[in-house]
Amino acid sequence: MADYENPNVACPFYKSEDNRKIKCEGISSITTLHLVFNPCSEKKGFRQNTCEGDYHKCPIARLHFRRNRGEE
Questions:
Q1: Domain map of the chain by residue range?
Q2: Which of 38-56 are b and which e, b meaning 16 or more Cβ less than 10 Å from the residue's Cβ?
Q3: At 11, is the secondary structure helix, strand, or coil?
Q4: Residue 14 class from Cβ within 10 Å (0-12 exposed, 13-18 middle, 19+ buried)?
Q5: Cα–Cα dist 59/17, whole Å
Q6: How far is CA 65 from the centre of its chain?
Q7: Is residue 17 a contact partner of residue 3, using CB atoms and an 8 Å limit?
Q8: pLDDT recorded at residue 4
Q9: What are 21-71's pLDDT values in tens digits?
Q10: What global pTM score does this model have?
Q11: Rounded distance, CA 72 to CA 30, Å?
Q12: Is 80 exceeded by the pLDDT of residue 14?
């Protein structure tokens, strides 16, 4: 399945998605984290509530914010 970008996403760490996965910036510049949803119907709700909404509650975004503040 081809990746695509959702124009409604506000999270700065979002990269792309497909039918089953949301792909985010990884822990280094050469990595990508894949959130795989099973069932895939859960992906839409997560994206709407987290990636498009309050992305500060996303565990991946929180990891990046802590890292950027030097709290590794």
A1: 14-68
A2: eeeeebeeebeebbbeebe
A3: coil
A4: buried
A5: 17
A6: 13
A7: yes
A8: 85
A9: 999 999 888 999 999 999 888 999 999 999 999 999 999 999 999 988 875
A10: 0.85
A11: 18
A12: yes
Tell me which amino acid residue 24 is.
C
Q: Among candidates 20, 9, 19, which has minimal Cα distance to 58? A: 9
User: Other CB atoms closer than 10 Å to residue 13's CB: what's the count?
Assistant: 18
- The amino acid occupying position 19 is N
Any bridge partners for residue 25, and if so which?
32
- Kindly report whether the peptide bond that precedes residue 39 is cis, defined as omega within 30 degrees of 0: yes
Provide φ and ψ at 15, rounded to 5°.
Answer: -115, -55
- Tell me which amino acid residue 31 is: T
- The tokens describing 62, both together, are 């929180």
